[in-house]
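Hey, quick one: can you model this chain's 3D structure?
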Amino acid sequence: MLQQKASVIQNTPLAGVEAELNFIIPSNDGRKPFSHQYDPPPGQPVRSHPYENHKVFIQNGRVHADAFSIDREGFALVRHVAKSADLYDEAELKNGYYPDIEALLKAETGASKIVIFDHTIRTSHNQPRGVGLPREAVLRVHNDYTLKSGPQRVRDLVPDEADARLKKRFAIINVWRPIVGPLQQFPLALGDAESLRTEDVLATDLIYPDRVGEIYSIAYNPSQRWFYFPEMSRDEVVLIKTYDSNPAVARFSAHGAFADPNFPDPKVLRESIEIRALVFFD
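Sure thing. Here's the predicted structure for all 282 residues.
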């Protein structure tokens, strides 16, 4: 399922940090994990499986910034100045930021059509600005879509085009940006897709009151390679591959926030926005 090739990125001693990432513990009986996304019915756990922290070496990706590819490692750092001044303003997001990101994704991927279908703001502030309900950083390592849920997003979001689109290549890409910088609190650890084994990737049900989604939870494997881009600015984004229908490239990667030991008392609290987009190729 995952590509196993020699990475062009090699471990660089002393260029990174040792930090804890949170991984799922697979069950011995092969039970499929689940996680309730609301207060579960009485007697049912929020999550079926336990998680555990592992201290891993997370390389400073800036050392190799120009070498990363979303089609090989599954992620890439791109400089991109946001034209929208207020990323908390819903109207400005839809009318300005969305088209801006659509143009970026077309330029970076060569795609023929981009469909941005949602955004999520995450913040550590007790009284967040803007409308909606910003969320906290996700510390569990995961990937947003699976072999099942990736195609289902196409059927859900563009039903009239789905049959034709699913016959061609498509991908789902997250565009992640700090709203304020430099980002010191809870940066993203990014897992090199080439270092993920099939057994590391566990399809997991996300149970909502009215539906069931599916993501990949990630189990620990000491051969995994992890990277991050320290102190990201507002003028930088990370592109994260969360699904690709093409088996010849990186189909998935993995990501999760972590506490950077270089900033035990960060002066800049986490504020970030992530865009999720369907990326269609002709």
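One thing worth noting: The chain has a mean pLDDT of 92.
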